[in-house]
Design brief:
The chain folds into 2 domains: 1-21 and 364-457, Arc Repressor Mutant, subunit A (Orthogonal Bundle); 24-328, tm_1862 like domain (pyruvate-formate lyase- activating enzyme). It has helices at residues 4-10, 32-42, 76-94, 118-131, 151-159, 174-179, 189-198, 216-228, 250-255, 260-276, 294-300, 342-350, 364-379, 384-390, 395-401, 406-414, 435-440, and strands spanning 50-56, 58-59, 71-72, 102-110, 133-144, 164-170, 202-209, 233-238, 280-283, 287-290, 304-307, 310-313, 319-323, 328-331, 334-338, 356-361, 381-383, 418-421, 424-427. The protein is globular and about 60 Å long. The strands form 5 sheets. The chain has a 9-stranded mixed β-sheet. A 3-stranded antiparallel β-sheet has the order 14-15-16, with helices on one face. It has a 3-stranded antiparallel β-sheet with strand order 17-19-18. Strand 4 (102-110), helix 4 (118-131) and strand 5 form a beta-alpha-beta unit. The chain is α/β, with parallel strands linked by helices and 457 residues long. Bound molecules: S-adenosylmethionine (SAM) and iron/sulfur cluster (SF4). The site of iron/sulfur cluster has 11 residues, from loops.
Length: 457
């Protein structure tokens, strides 16, 4: 574990590094024509596997902590036109993708995808199956708000092939949910979970710490309840308070947000409870998976990956082709993001072009930095010689590209957060808490854009 003095020292505003370069580097010179070129090129670069991401922005009610790209609406007309555009986008993109490539992952994210009717989801799944080659073991996942989830709805999802259901529980404490304007689960989480498990699907739980009325003791209670239900995966998100981007979050300040120390204590106690249960491995900083889960197996063999949708294994990870407003595609050496405005998104798709508004072409040097950061964030270690082999270059060049110097890393060694020799970096147990700080030292482009980020811890 890490002590409070170190928390204070390292709690800085830094990128989350869910991608490299971070999404804050994307720029508008990257056009829809660039995206088309990237998609065509992606057929002959990197992995053949395809991941499809579908963004459903709609939510019936706004949770005050929400940092996602959402639209609070129940307007059927708007939802219908959006889904029509989504279908058009899938058909449009498919003309540039080599359709003999296998789809190994389909992820429905949001917003609240389960705010759509089962028929609406079914129409899109049918379209996808009619176009793409879906691998037999394809992971088909959906993020669900349990406030809108019924057993018959789950039955429809299983019939469509969904095999991983994420439940956004956030906290079992009613007072915390109420202050955040979050509706409670329609059915007991226990009932939903056993129903999902009885249908051979994986069940994930999402929690957030750092909200009003949460304390280390209350959050521990929530985690204990979760452990008793034995989900396959647990995520404990650190609440990202960014009211300059999401003004509705400032309403939570009136309720009183826990301070950094208290927040860290919540994380620590949750981390201890989950890892000391002996049933879960910590995946990165805040994800946990049961020891027999594919993520744990990938962690042990150093083959864990990460994309905007979370952690994944080498088997399921593909290049990500993303559909819907604000959705981010992650191809071999480029990122492309769609317009965040629903009207613009629909208009652009209806005009017969991708709705790309910004993106990024990753340079050769940045591909190296990306790999360094991903290895450390996923597998907590790296061997410089392995990277040199992968990129067919020297260790010296790899180190130079990411601005590595032993002096910069010394403070982390002195603080017991990092163990290092000429050929390796190993993040210690306490070092996982400062992983964003450590990888930021290997990001020479950081601070060049004057952007604001959430705190690292
Ligand atoms: C896009 S939501 C999708 C699930 C669904 N909308 C729900 O809320 O249950 C995915 C997860 O992001 C997390 N999240 C949302 N806003 C956040 C924030 N400001 N900071 C950290 N995590 C956040 C929540 O835990 C949520 O379950
Ligand atoms: S349901 Fe999920 S996506 Fe929608 S507002 Fe709440 S946290 Fe955000």
């Amino acid at each position: 574990m890490i002590d409070n003095k170190l928390i204070e020292k390292y709690n800085k505003a830094l990128p989350r590094y869910t991608s490299y370069p971070p999404a804050t580097s994307f720029h508008s010179e990257f056009s829809s024509d660039d995206y088309i070129k990237s998609v065509k090129a992606s057929n002959n670069q990197g992995t053949k596997n395809i991941s499809l991401y579908l963004h459903i922005p709609f939510c019936p009610r706004l949770c005050l902590y929400c940092g996602c790209t959402t639209l609070i609406t129940r307007k059927e007309e708007m939802i219908k036109s959006y889904l029509e555009a989504l279908k058009k986008e899938i058909v449009m993109l498919s003309q540039w993708i080599d359709l003999s490539r296998p789809v190994t992952q389909i992820h429905w994210g949001g917003g609240t995808p389960n705010a759509l009717s089962a028929e609406q989801i079914g129409e899109i799944m049918d379209l996808i199956s009619s176009i793409f080659k879906i691998e037999k073991n394809c992971e088909i996942a959906i993020e669900c708000n349990p406030a809108h989830l019924t057993l018959s709805y789950l039955d429809s999802l299983f019939d469509m092939g969904f095999n991983r259901i994420s439940l956004g529980i956030q906290d079992f404490n009613q007072k915390v949910l109420e202050a955040a304007h979050r509706d409670t689960s329609k059915l007991p989480i226990e009932e939903l979970s056993s129903y999902i498990r009885n249908h051979s699907a994986g069940v994930n739980y999402d929690f957030i710490y750092g909200l009003p009325h949460q304390s280390p003791a209350s959050f521990s209670e929530t985690i204990k309840q979760a452990l008793a239900l034995k989900p396959d995966r647990i995520v404990t998100f650190s609440y990202a308070h960014v009211p300059w981007v999401k003004p509705h979050q400032s309403l939570l300040e009136k309720e009183g947000l826990p301070g950094a120390e208290e927040k860290m204590a919540m994380f620590k106690s949750a981390y201890d409870l989950i890892t000391k249960s002996g049933e879960y491995d910590a995946i990165g900083l805040d994800h946990f998976s049961r020891k027999d889960d594919s993520l744990s197996i990938a962690l042990r063999s150093g083959k864990l990956h990460r994309n905007f949708q979370g952690y994944c294994t080498r088997e399921t990870t593909g290049q990500v082709y993303a559909f819907g407003m604000s959705a981010i595609s992650q191809l071999y050496n480029s990122y492309a993001q769609n317009d965040k405005n629903i009207e613009n998104y629909i208009r652009m798709i209806n005009s017969g072009k991708p709705a790309t508004v910004k993106g990024y072409c990753i340079s050769e040097d940045e591909m190296i930095i990306k790999e360094v950061i991903e290895r450390l964030m996923c597998n907590n270690k790296l061997l410089w010689s392995e990277l040199a082999e992968q990129f067919e270059t020297s260790v010296g060049r790899i180190k130079a590209v990411c601005g590595y110097s032993p002096e910069k890393m010394q403070q982390y060694i002195d603080d017991g957060l990092l163990i290092m020799d000429d050929n390796s970096l190993n993040i210690t147990g306490p070092g996982r808490f400062t992983i964003r700080n450590i990888v930021a030292e290997l990001d020479p482009k950081l601070n060049s854009g004057g952007k604001q980020f959430s705190k690292s811890i």
